[in-house]
Write a structure and sequence with these properties.
Elements (H helix, E strand, L loop, with lengths): L23 H27 L4 H20 L6 H14 L6 H28 L1
Helix pairs in contact: 1-2, 1-4, 2-3, 3-4
Protein name: DUF4233 domain-containing protein
Pfam family, one: DUF4233
Keywords: Membrane, Transmembrane, Transmembrane helix
Length: 129
């Protein structure tokens, strides 16, 4: 039997293990986290140049949260990751104490996070029918 003739093995959907593309909730949540990481990362130069926040503090807080967002996007296959991501949304809102615009942007991403959970679960339910 040649490589082309072999029946598929493993996951019947063809998705890689841990790939969020097979689950609508994980796909939406990982997209929100990836976009959030970009916005938080862009808050670092604003905090330093415009608001005169210490560069080390701005880099550690905003840069650290951006990295955590990216790591969480990859960890969404675990059941504990969604509640942890929800807690992360609170931390992002709290960066508004350093960069006031982040109060608004953090709340916006919090709404997107909740909407992604709601719409993703709705899509899962529709797919099960």
């Amino acid at each position: 039997m040649s490589v082309q003739e072999r029946p598929p093995t493993g996951n019947p959907t063809g998705n890689r293990t841990g790939d969020p593309s097979g689950n609508p909730v994980r796909r939406l949540l990982s997209t929100v986290l990836a976009c959030e990481a970009i916005v938080i990362g862009l808050a670092v130069p604003v905090a330093i140049a415009v608001l005169k926040v210490d560069a080390l503090i701005a880099g550690l807080v905003c840069g650290g949260l951006a990295v955590i967002c990216l790591v969480m996007a990859g960890m969404l296959r675990f059941s504990w990751a969604v509640p942890a991501g929800t807690a992360l949304q609170v931390l992002v809102i709290a960066t508004g104490f350093m960069v006031p615009t982040m109060f608004f942007l953090g709340a916006l991403f919090g709404v997107l996070w909740g909407t992604a959970i709601w719409m993703g679960r709705k899509a899962e339910g529709a797919g099960a029918r």
